[in-house]
Design goal:
This protein is mostly helical. The chain is built from 10 helices and no strands. It folds into 2 domains: about 45 residues; about 180 residues, MetI-like fold (Orthogonal Bundle). The protein is flat, with a radius of gyration of 24 Å.
Amino acid sequence: MYRLPDSRRFKNRVMLLIIIAVSILYVTPLISIIYTAVEKGGTTLVEAGLSFLTDLPPTPLSSGAGGIAPALVGSLLASILAILISTPVAFLMAFYVTEFPRHSLSRVCEVVVRSFSGVPSIVVSMFVYSTVVISMGRQSLLAGSLSLSIVTLPYAYVYFTSAFRSIPESLREAAMSLGMNRAGALIHVYVGVLRGSIVTGLLMSYVRAFGDTAPLLFTMGFLMNAVFAGVLQQSNAIPLNDIRIRAITLRELP
């Protein structure tokens, strides 16, 4: 049986130790964040119970911990509405670009949509503020959802485009040989084949919308005295609460 020379075995062990050390260094910050969140937030959740998720935030005169119901509901509704706006557009654009890759309109769509991924989220928020919020006269859940939809559009487009390009050419030819047009092939063949990829794209886009903060700064407002006031009224979001808590904490520092 062949055995590695001593020098090769020594190098192998050294590289293995380096990889393990780098992996530990890479994972340590993540473990620290999870531990801090569980340690600090777990105490509040145990003390408040489920009411932490269903109650309104505390007032200056209240003695209880309060809850995050407006922020939780606002984040869920804004993310869902953003996905309902952005993913159909991204899906149809990805289908068109992959089916007609040499068309001039496809090239324009490819460049424009991918360029949106490089635009800072705060710029999107200011754009929606100047076009939607000012024209409506108020910040609203709808304006925040529009900002999130613009931010998530490039991510959904990239996932859907990659999914459509992974379809074997033989499958496309088989669908066309059965007399299907492109729309029929999309409905009866492509959607079934790409079911997993489509769900993955939807979930990743939803996570991106749920956790983003900058698009909501100038668009959603801040709702404290109600869980939900309407799509055209101000709302709240969990990332916005975190920013405001940090701002209050910094103001109270000596």
